[in-house]
Amino acid sequence: MYGDTGLGKTVAVEQALHLLPGRVPVWRAVVGVGPGLPQVRAALCEALGLPSGSLTHRAGPADQALVEALAEPGVLFLDDAQRLSPPVLDYLRQLWDSPGCAAALVLCGAGSERALARAAAMRSRVLTWHQVSRLDPEDVPRTLGLFHPVWEDADPAGLVRADEQTARGNFRTWAKITSHVCAARGRDPGAGVDRDAIDQACARLGPYS
């Protein structure tokens, strides 16, 4: 899953994972900036519920434990995959190349496609690429209505106008606008989401929206 910053990649993946049957385990691995193999190994162990503390500095046993854990059908979600170096991506490839691996790996991040381009062996094993683009103006009202109930009764024309002038199809910007609108309604529960309410929320975003 790739695309520019703030377009809703993580939200889209999380929503898709939420729709999986409850019997399918989902593991989420969190990595820092420029992680080395030990840090990624520890993150994977933690995500899979393995004793990362005792395994982090024992590469062989840790890798074997990961291989055994990944033999269970499930989905491992690794966000910010653009932070991964070619050696780290090749390490992931080796884990998923292990005989008996039954888990799916979802990589997500702005620039993750460029990171994978530098790891040819891993890139060649990607089954599906999905690019997230900016919201089309005509899709904004329906998408926001699905995202948060505060938008269900909002004027579609007002939302399209705010998108053209402020959000410009950026889902993260709409998440901020949503937060400001909800805060305003919390102070005045009877207030509707009209043009003025949307304009006031947009005005709070500052120069770097």
In short, what is this structure?
This protein has 11 helices and 3 strands.
What order do the helices and strands come in, and which of them pair?
Layout: H1 9-18, E1 26-29, H2 37-47, H3 52-55, H4 59-69, E2 74-78, H5 86-97, E3 103-107, H6 112-117, H7 120-123, H8 140-147, H9 156-167, H10 171-187, H11 195-203
Parallel strand pairs: 1-2, 2-3
Helix pairs in contact: 2-4, 9-11, 10-11
Describe the structure.
By secondary structure, the protein is mainly α. The chain folds into 2 domains: 9-123, Rossmann fold; 137-203. The chain has helices at 9-18, 37-47, 52-55, 59-69, 86-97, 112-117, 120-123, 140-147, 156-167, 171-187, 195-203, and strands at residues 26-29, 74-78, 103-107. It has a 3-stranded parallel β-sheet. β2 (74-78), α5 (86-97) and β3 form a beta-alpha-beta unit. The longest helix has 17 residues, at 171-187. The protein is elongated. The chain starts with 8 loop residues before the first helix and ends in a 6-residue tail after the last helix.
Q: What is the overall number of helices?
A: 11
Q: How many domains in all?
A: 2
- Biggest β-sheet: strands ordered side by side in the sheet: 1-2-3
Helical fraction: 40-55%
Structural class: mainly alpha
CATH topology of the largest domain: Rossmann fold
Largest sheet descriptor: 3 strands, parallel
The total count of strands amounts to 3
CATH level 1 name of the largest domain: Alpha Beta
Mean pLDDT: 93
Elements, N to C (H/E) = HEHHHEHEHHHHHH
CATH architecture of the largest domain: 3-Layer(aba) Sandwich
Alpha carbon gap, first and last residue? 23 Å
Instruction: Look at the structure and name the CATH superfamily of the largest domain.
Output: P-loop containing nucleotide triphosphate hydrolases
Question: How large is the radius of gyration?
Answer: 21 Å
